Amino acid sequence: MDAASYSYTEHGFKTAMAALKNESEAAWEWLSKIPKHTWARHAMDMNCKTDLVVNNLSEVFNKWVLDVRAKPIRTMVDGIMTKLMVKFNANRTKTETVRWEICPTYAEKLEEAKKFARNCHALMAGPNLYQVTSWETTYAVNLQHRTCGCKKWDMTAVPCNNAISAIHKAKLQPEDFVHDFFKKKKMYLTAYSPIIYPVPGPDMWPRTDSMDIEAPVFKEHKGRAQTKRRKGQYEKPAPKDTSRMASITCSNCKKVGHRYTNCNVALNPSLAMRKNRHEPSSSSYELDAATPARRASSAAGAAATAPSPAQRASSSSATAPGPAKKRAPSASATTPGPPKKRASSASATAPGPPKKRATFAAPAQRTTTGSSS
Predict the structure, then answer these.
(1) What pTM value is reported for the model?
(2) Does position 163 have pLDDT exceeding 90, yes or no?
(3) Where in the sequence does UniProt note compositional bias of the Low complexity kind (predicted)?
(4) Beta 137-142 vs 147-148: how paired, if at all?
(5) pLDDT digits 0-9 by tens, 36-77
(6) Which residues of 240-265 are buried (b: 16+ CB within 10 A; e: fewer)?
(7) What local confidence, expressed as pLDDT, does residue 211 receive?
(8) d(CA 117, CA 122)
(9) Which of 4, 75, 196, 235 could be bridged to 71 by S-S, CB 3.0 to 4.6 A?
(10) 160 Cβ contact list (under 8 Å, min separation 6)
(11) What span, in angstroms and rounded, lies between the C-alpha atoms of 227 and 239?
(12) In angstroms, rounded to a whole number, what is the distance separating the alpha carbons of residues 181 and 167?
């Protein structure tokens, strides 16, 4: 069922429905009774520029107004108006500082398509018409009408991997083929340019001659009011959280314990752009798929700077080394003489007679007076 619902082409839809019929004919009969444009991607309207099959957009809005949707009608409308007023102003002022030109979500999709475009081979069949082969599939790409045989470019308005391969073959940039609906200057600013003006409270409302509208009578029912969505008969119940702290799983390597911002594995293109805050940068996949024009221009520049044959001949004659000249040796420098003995002084080397140590005589005894007399 999922293969039939998510197929972009009618051929893929019929193939998936045939496989479903072989597996369960009862399921095939039940699904065939539902109009295809309500659940099959290939039969949906392509003016919406989205390939969403599920109702995620309505679920997101439903959660956004969760705190005011159960209130009385006037309070609920005022609450939703206040939320929209703040949201419009935040998105309007955000565009003054951001550097991206394509909306972040679709810029990530474009980077992913650039990665898979390396496996495609494009051949030119005519003006703006290319045949693109990817593995075992082949599609026709028309750059003028911005269509591809896989129907993904037609539905999402963002070039697919087949279209990007043809765009590189035509020496153009994939960003120029993204629809204006997803660009900041063309549609994003226009969507949030209207200002939702504040509404004064009930104390500032003008009085009218008509009868005032009273609030509806509130009827209190037994039991607790139901706030959760009623699930379908075959819908699986949501798993209960056993703890308040959930384990963190990396969206890049799928391992537990860290986020993609701290991942040691090389990031995929969409996460790398998200980490770079969706700022425009040269993609590695664009460098891998360098156009022949760039190569030709670089070769022409190298040829312009290379010297001519005449210059090479003159430079070689000027720099060519001649016969090596022998240096005339000097006799005094090259002829070895007799070894010179180091002069040594006899007084310094010959030992002399040992010197006697000087002795002092004892002083004479002093005579007494009796002897003198």
Answers:
(1) 0.62
(2) yes
(3) 289-335
(4) antiparallel
(5) 999 999 999 888 888 888 888 888 998 899 999 888 888 999
(6) eeeeeeeeeebebeeeeeeebeebee
(7) 86
(8) 10
(9) 75
(10) 113, 148, 150, 152, 153
(11) 18
(12) 20
pLDDT of residue 362: 47
Whose CA is closest to 31, among 53, 16, 42? 16
Q: Where are the beta strands (DSSP E) in the chain?
A: 120-126, 129-134, 137-142, 147-148
Q: What gap in Å lies between CA 175 and CA 109, rounded to an integer?
A: 12
Answer positive or negative: Cα dihedral of 255, 257, 263, 267. positive
Assess contact for 131 and 123: CB atoms under 8 A: yes
Delimit the domains of the chain by residue range: 1-44, 104-183
Total residues found in the chain within this entry: 373
Instruction: State whether the Cα torsion 279-280-281-287 is positive or negative.
Output: positive
pLDDT grade, residue 129 (50/70/90)? very high
Q: Are 167 and 143 in contact (CB under 8 A)?
A: yes
Determine how many CB atoms are found less than 10 A away from the CB of residue 82: 14
